[in-house]
Amino acid sequence: MGQPLATRVWRNWARTATATPQRVCHPRDLHELSADVRRAVADGLRVRAVGSGHSFTPVATTDGVHIRVDALDVLERVVSQADGSTHVTVGAGIRLGALNALLAERGLAMRNLGDIDKQTLAGAISTGTHGTGARLGGLATQVVGAELVTATGDVVQTSATQEPELFELARLGLGTVGVLGTVTLEVVPAYRLEAREEPWLLGDVLEQLDGPDGLVEANDHFEFYWFPHTDRTLTKRNNRVADDVELPLPRVRGWLEDEVIANGAFALANSIATLAPSLTRSVNDIATRTISRRRYTAPSASVFVSSRRVRFREMEYALPRDQVAPVLREIVSWIESSGELLPFPLEVRFAAADDLWLSTAHGRDTAYIAVHQYVRLPYARYFDAVERIVAQVDGRPHWGKMHWLEAERLAELYPRFADAQRVRAQADPDGVFSNPYLDRLLGSPRDAG
Ligand SMILES: Cc1cc2nc3c(=O)[nH]c(=O)nc-3n(C[C@H](O)[C@H](O)[C@H](O)COP(=O)(O)OP(=O)(O)OC[C@H]3O[C@@H](n4cnc5c(N)ncnc54)[C@H](O)[C@@H]3O)c2cc1C
């Protein structure tokens, strides 16, 4: 008998994608994962792996077999390397929060993280998830090995020296060359960060961004949020400090700002803006006036990660770093002249150039501009306008977030795009791991073969 409909229906966090696969699998190890893929292929069904559904697009959807990887979440091994670094191998379905806890217990940590920890490791690396830091890359740059089940059901080990081309798409390839079973990360000794959060005027931030002593270079992790219809931002400077530097955040104040202001009052502000759009400017004005200064130290993961309970839609573009100020000024001016009323802030982050084929920071020091819209408000006109502005500086869209680019344009933006298409076509000539969204994004593997 087939699985009941209720257990098969799936939708993503942002409520922008749904799927009703014919079958759902929950493999607990590589052996079961391989059997699930083989059976799908024998039944003529397509396969998509799905993590925690935190991508904003239909990238993980399928009408064939959904492989939900949550049960692949064990710590397999921790190996000290001759060069002093440490490699940790974990099940690819582990949530980042659980991974951070496992690492902390062993005196270890990820080199950098994004804003939340609900994603699976596989999902996060597959879409190029990143945090901020001028000298640091996204999560996939921390991957040194990956074990995946390919379209033939075989288990293949990949790394910079084993199947290096396949490794490129295993560590950042939207699940197009197989289903990840385990991932090996290079991790670092646990560290503490001093967090410094301050309200700044947007003009001051843009003026002080660049140069060797600028905000981006002079901080390990710098980011800021700009609130539309105001000239105010929230800046975040997180820097490594020695383990004995203790600057605790008073418990009540931390809770008040994180839970009541960042989530509770923010939810209220968005509801007001939805019911009475004309109040959006006043709401943003009041919201930005409540931002206060905070300074505290804590283990890295708890500084990076916050909770996001207000649901939204998001588009994020990677730009050459030196373009961020002019692009942001153009977006600000479009918002003011367009009449769009936007209760959600824009987020600006930074990353070092890397050489991963499909990394949004491939070959260039990068700034990210993320635009958000509350889940109950229209987003298309705003996102479309921002997409047209960033196109002028060859912006590259985040692989897990909303955008309207297709293969032809993406090929112009990524120097190794044709190589990625070739490797995908070799690994999966029949498009077992494809869906219509991916075919639009990357072309059909049958055409590239
Ligand atoms: C509230 C929120 C905050 C976010 N914050 C950030 C942020 O700070 N920085 C940032 O860069 N992004 C951020 N994102 C985006 C998010 O990190 C990515 O979309 C990420 O892919 C989500 O991981 P997931 O586990 O939900 O994967 P899913 O969305 O479920 O899947 C993503 C992709 O991974 C593939 N996949 C999943 N598991 C496997 C597997 N085992 N093998 C092969 N492929 C697999 C899927 O097929 C799909 O292509 C955020 C998203 C939300 C909703």
From TrEMBL:
Coiled coil: none annotated. The keyword Lyase does not apply. InterPro entries: ALO_C, FAD-bd_PCMH, FAD-bd_PCMH-like_sf, FAD-bd_PCMH_sub1, FAD-bd_PCMH_sub2, FAD_lactone_oxidase-like, Oxid_FAD_bind_N, Oxy_OxRdtase_FAD_BS. Keywords: Ascorbate biosynthesis, Oxidoreductase. Pathway: Cofactor biosynthesis; L-ascorbate biosynthesis. Pfam families: ALO (PF04030), FAD_binding_4 (PF01565). The keyword Nucleotide-binding does not apply. Signal peptide: none annotated. Belongs to the oxygen-dependent FAD-linked oxidoreductase family. This is FAD-binding protein. Residues 17-190 form the FAD-binding PCMH-type domain. PANTHER family: D-ARABINONO-1,4-LACTONE OXIDASE, L-GULONOLACTONE OXIDASE.
